[in-house]
Amino acid sequence: MKNHKLKVALVHDDLIQYGGAERVLEIMHEIWPDAPIYTSMYDREGMLIKGWNDDGMEIRTSRFQFLPKKSKFGNKFYLPIFPLAFESFDFSEYDLVISSSTRFAHGIITRPGTCHICYCNSPARFLWMYSDYEKGHGGIKSWQKLFLLPILHWQRIWDQQASLRPDFYFGNSSIIVKRINKLYKREAEVMFPPADVEKFFPKGWVKKKDYYVIVGRMAGHKRYDIAVEAFNKLGSEYELRLIGSGDKLEELKAMAKENVKFLGYVSNEERERQVQEAKGFIYTQFEDFGITAVEGNAAGTPVIAYGEGGVLDTIVDGKTGVYFEEQTAESLIEAIKKFETMSLSPKECIDNAKRFNKESFKNKLKDRVEEMVREYRDKYDMN
User: Fold this and answer.
1) pLDDT tens digits, 307-338
2) What are phi and psi of 60, to 5 degrees?
3) Residue 3: inside a domain, yes or no?
């Protein structure tokens, strides 16, 4: 078995939206290009429009592929059946299965001879952080809760049972590792996801301008209202530029004064230039990792960040950014005034961001997975 080439499969919750978890899956497929991808359902047309590229991928969907990919109630409508989709897959032909899980993918069932490694983006937030999830996604109607809450209770029981199935866990940040420890009672290793930092690197010397910038989707849980309120109070000497669109855009515009400017959707090149020339990158949200904060540093721009969640792994307080302690306008104002007295190095910001480049992630993940497989085979005497 020592010269045996491992037969590998990849598993992902669903392929109906294109975000950070899907970009990690793409890179996993680059490492193991012969590995088929198992998923509950695949909206190919919708994914390709958003930038997904499935060239060379063999994607195997569950028996629920026939269901509408966009339901009136979103994926909440399919919650009772999603676990069945993953338990129905047959992985008996594989030596190694890597699940990329934010909801149900870790619940696959493998034979004793198959090593199962889970890359956990987070235990399901709608199960274990329900109140926060509801607030961040527009709320759920009372009549929907009547049906939904008993289902979530059952699925929490299923989720804890399913958490025993992987042989090893990665968490995408320190906070996710702690969440895995608490909810699943399992040990996990931190494996930071990659950021496309190279495209933000300045091509030469960049003259910083006298404004701060925010980049992201204008959604409630991002708490950009804190930033708008803070710059309203700071006055005309402090300019804030917001790049992006979303449900909260008009609400934020309505509360903003003249020193707060909304650029909306801009090209990638313009977004990179705006971040590179900004004196500071404002980051008000709580995220498990937070790629945009890393991209801010990659552009040579210090990050003024709410000091909870993934930024504790990515932004070095006092060197590549400044933390503020409370998710309030007053706390942010205090941090900005502190930042104005400091001189943080763009080069140090860029060097910090290089830790999260794609090639480093690929090498670290591949090497560690191979070590885990050897450990698994030694433990069960399968060499």
Assistant:
1) 999 999 999 999 999 999 999 999 999 999 99
2) -115, 115
3) no
